[in-house]
Amino acid sequence: MPGFLIDLDGTLYRGTEVVEHAAEFIELLHEKELPYYYLTNNSARTPDTVAEHLRSLGIRAETGDVITSAQAAAAYIARNQQGNRVFCVGEQGMIVAMQDAGLTVTDERPDYVVQGLDRELTYDKLKQAVRFILSGAQFVLTNPDLLIPTETGLSPAAGSIAAAIEAASGSKPVLIGKPSKIIMDYAIERVGLASSDIWVVGDNLATDIAGGVASGCRTALILTGVTTRGNQEELMRKYGVSPDVTADDLMHFAEKL
Ligand SMILES: [Mg+2]
């Protein structure tokens, strides 16, 4: 009985628009009682908000079905045991994940600087992050994307903020999000199956498929997002990975199972 780790943007929805056959695919997994989780590199939204967004698009989702890079970052820090004081450069999803894991969110003597997308970033926050890292705090990055598409065009994402902190502090961050083994191991543990029994399903070769391959999962590339029939070969060469299965949409993937 396989389990599934399913990407969100480009796989189940594109912004505020649901991807064709996405709701149908999730219903099918639910009916067959196959374990599945939604796995996102987005650290800005809480699992609650992600589940609500999915439901608003007609996709079955509970808070507990959602795994975010902020949760994986919090689990990594809690397990690392080099202190539990965390300075956050991020949004609500990150702060809640840190608190839920029993960590102390603070702007005094932190052991870690955790950074993701922060749409209320100020120079002051940037300065604090850099100074804490220069004083020995460990730099942790939830997701490396440089740009995100928004309704009004491309906007700088978490990776661009990280580039500024890295340049100023001279420290490279520990990367948590896909394709990092840190989020993949965390997610595989939540599913509770051997990695060889888990399908990683997504639209992005560099994150979903590379992360799945590196952690020994089966991988399904769905051509409803950033990868298309036209650029697939070129991107496979660029990132040096190929999926076990390629499908035009999620129900097309279900037929191949
Ligand atoms: Mg995606």
Q: Could you explain how this protein is built, in words?
A:
The strands form four sheets. A six-stranded parallel β-sheet has the order 5-4-1-13-14-15, with helices on both faces. The protein has a five-stranded parallel β-sheet with strand order 7-6-8-9-12, with helices on both faces. Strands 2-3 form a two-stranded antiparallel sheet. It has ten helices and 15 strands. 47% of the residues are buried. The chain has two domains: 3-41 and 178-256, 3-Layer(aba) Sandwich (Rossmann fold), CATH 3.40.50.1000; 81-175, Rossmann fold (3-Layer(aba) Sandwich), CATH 3.40.50. The chain is an alpha/beta fold and 257 residues long. It is globular, with a radius of gyration of 18 Å. The structure holds magnesium ion. Magnesium ion (MG) binds next to loops.
CATH class of the largest domain: Alpha Beta
First and last CA, distance: 11 Å
| Number of E-state strands | 15
Could you spell the SSE succession in H and E letters?
A: EEEHEHEHEHEEHEEEHEHEHEHEH
Q: Which parts are unreliable, with pLDDT below 50 for 5 consecutive residues or more? A: none
Structural class: alpha/beta
Tell me the count of domains. 2
Tally of separate helices: 10
Rg value: 18 Å
* Order of the strands making up the biggest sheet: 5-4-1-13-14-15
> What percent of residues adopt helix (DSSP H or I)?
25-40%
Nearest-integer average pLDDT? 97
User: What's the CATH topology label of the largest domain?
Assistant: Rossmann fold
- SS strand fraction: 15-25%
Superfamily (CATH H level) name of the largest domain: HAD superfamily/HAD-like
